[in-house]
Amino acid sequence: MTGPFRRRGDRIEIRLAEHEIQFLSQLPRLLETVGAVSGDPAADRLDVPAYLDDPEAEEEYRRWIRGELDEARAADRSAFVELVEAAQTGTSASEPEAEAFLRVLAEARLVLAARMGIEVEDDYEGLAEPDAAVLDYLGALQTLLIRELSA
Questions:
Q1: What is the sign, positive or negative, of the torsion defined by CA atoms of 54, 56, 60, 66?
Q2: How deeply is 86 buried, as exposed, middle or buried, from its count of CB atoms within 10 A (0-12, 13-18, 19+)?
Q3: 50, 97, 132, 151: least surrounded by Cβ within 10 Å?
């Protein structure tokens, strides 16, 4: 297997090293720390307004979508936890489970980037090496998983 993901028919095999499992198992807890919008740059990054110039429409949208979005994120994180726990010996994910895994990676990367102060592409160049390495690792996992999902 090249990389941690490999398509086998309609499933995606996942196999992670122990150090990857230790790191990835922290991501759902990281996402739980996202605070209120405007109080945490990560919250602002995850809750981008749908209606920029219409506060009333935005409020209505949030009222209708908030519960559904929270439920979907909780389900994604639950699937992610189960897959990470099983990935040391190797596990197999359905496409919807693999897509949930991908969404959690994306959310975590957005949260970390926001908290690291990345607003524009050039901000990445000023990151400390360990911070850049974390974002690069998550980005590489996203790329590898997208390739397998697209195969």
A1: positive
A2: middle
A3: 151
Integer Cα distance of 124 and 138 in angstroms: 14
Q: DSSP 3-state assignment of 64?
A: helix
**Distance of alpha carbon 102 from alpha carbon 100, whole angstroms:** 5
Tokens linked to 137: 């690792």
Q: For Cα atoms 23, 25, 28, give the angle at the middle one, nearest 5 degrees.
A: 115
* pTM exceeding the 0.85 threshold for the entire prediction: yes
Tokens of 88: 């040391």
Taking residues 60-71, what's their average pLDDT?
A: 92
Query: Phi-psi category of 38—alpha, beta or left, where left has phi over 0 and alpha has psi -120 to 50?
Result: left
